[in-house]
Design goal:
Blueprint (H helix, E strand, L loop, with lengths): L2 H14 L16 H6 L5 H5 L6 H19 L6 H35 L8 H12 L6 H27 L5 H15 L9 H4 L7
Helix pairs in contact: 1-6, 4-5, 4-8, 5-6, 5-7, 6-7, 7-8
């Protein structure tokens, strides 16, 4: 088990009285169900891209958000409802692609940090960094910057791709940039900042 998973268990211990090495979820003996459960814990941003029933909610929600922002950004443009019906699906697909690129950044850093278990003096640094990227970016400044970078890259891709899509529709370049910028700022994947530790450390999450 990686050190950042042990840290998550210890955080849970502070909230619910479990511990690593003793108590209800012992690492060395007694009940081992806690070990099996924590081997199945994933960052929230990973679950967003894992095929599941969540997609039945996320895909329509993303489409509706994109359509709302696009329609709002068009101002008093005539027939903007028809325009949105024709082009929102392209905007939505571009957004999913951009979000996936941001997800790959987080996944790559997270997996790389998961291999840093050398037991040396820098171990606490790697543990806190990996824990922050995976479970709580607000717990580590460097992890927060990595997540912010992933969101910024995704936002930049949303702007670039949406600008290209909207430019091909014949809109004026000023309107194209305005709409693309609003879509990028509002629909960037801010859920990457969601601290998964809240879920796993909540009193409703049983071990």
């Amino acid at each position: 088990m990686n050190h950042w998973l042990k840290k998550l268990i210890n955080d849970r211990a502070g909230a619910g009285g479990t511990s690593v090495g003793g108590g209800r979820t012992s690492m060395g003996g007694g009940r081992t169900s806690g070990v099996r459960v924590y081997n199945l814990l994933f960052p929230a941003w990973l679950l967003l891209f894992w095929p599941s029933f969540l997609w039945l909610f996320l895909i329509p929600a993303n489409y509706l958000l994109d359509r709302f922002v696009l329609k709002w950004s068009l101002g008093d443009m005539p027939d903007k409802s028809l325009f949105c019906r024709k082009h929102t699906w392209k905007i939505c697909l571009a957004g999913f692609f951009a979000d996936f690129v941001g997800f790959l950044i987080l996944l790559g850093v997270f997996l790389l940090l998961g291999t840093q278990e050398n037991g040396g003096p820098a171990q606490d640094f790697w543990d806190d960094f990996g824990y922050g990227v995976g479970f709580n970016p607000f717990a580590n400044a460097l992890a927060f910057l990595v997540v912010a970078l992933a969101v910024a890259v995704a936002g930049f891709l949303i702007y670039s791709l949406d600008k290209r899509i909207l430019k091909r529709t014949g809109l004026e370049i000023t309107q194209v940039k305005r709409s693309a910028l609003r879509l990028a700022l509002i629909t960037a994947p801010y859920l990457f900042f969601f601290p998964s530790a809240i879920i796993y450390n909540s009193s409703s999450f049983s071990l």
